[in-house]
């Protein structure tokens, strides 16, 4: 089955909440209220991968900010979003298990990068666990070391992609 990438819509709220719960442990997963705020405050920074039957199989989202790292408060408070922010953050790159390793996550990330470039951002920021550092480096992200984030009680690493460094 083919899928398309499109901007999130309000009616996607329940499904993105469900996908998040499938992709992250409960202590790390964003809840319905957080997604409701994100969809309301920055739908332009929230993309979904949708099958031809309308089922959402993955998504990527995050606010724009002037900071070059993510702080934990950003996950819960959508008012951290600055429409003209220098950096596009990535709060989550979610793909349901049966669609992993088929290029969906890479397609979402590449499209998110393209849109950030079009909006004139300086770069992208995210946090990830050590096992995913290598994956994000494939997109040009650099490991900036252990993050100050303690989200969900996990150890996170700050990753940054500077567009001037990558030629994007």
Automatic annotation (TrEMBL):
Where does the record place the N-acetyltransferase domain? 3-162
Q: Does the keyword Acyltransferase apply?
A: yes
Superkingdom assignment: Bacteria
**Keyword terms, alphabetized:** Acyltransferase, Transferase
A molecular function GO annotation: N-acetyltransferase activity
As recorded in UniProt, its EC number(s) are 2.3.1.-
Please tell me whether the keyword DNA repair is annotated for this protein.
no
Q: Name one Pfam family in it.
A: Acetyltransf_1
Report what the protein is called.
GNAT family N-acetyltransferase
Name its species: Lacrimispora sp. BS-2
């Amino acid at each position: 089955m083919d899928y398309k990438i499109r901007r999130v819509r309000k009616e996607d709220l329940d499904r993105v909440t469900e996908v998040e719960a499938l992709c992250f442990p409960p202590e790390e997963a964003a809840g319905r209220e957080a997604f409701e705020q994100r969809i309301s405050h920055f739908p332009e920074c929230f993309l979904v991968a949708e099958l031809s039957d309308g089922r959402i199989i993955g998504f990527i989202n995050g606010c724009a900010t002037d900071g070059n790292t993510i702080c934990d408060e950003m996950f819960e408070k959508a008012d951290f979003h600055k429409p003209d922010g220098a950096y596009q953050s990535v709060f989550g790159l979610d793909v349901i298990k049966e669609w992993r390793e088929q290029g969906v996550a890479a397609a979402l990330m590449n499209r998110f990068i393209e849109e950030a470039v079009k909006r004139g951002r300086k770069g992208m920021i995210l946090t990830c666990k050590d096992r995913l550092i290598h994956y994000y480096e494939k997109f040009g992200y650099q490991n900036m070391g252990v993050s100050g984030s303690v989200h969900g009680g996990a150890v996170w690493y700050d990753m940054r992609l500077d567009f001037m460094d990558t030629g994007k």
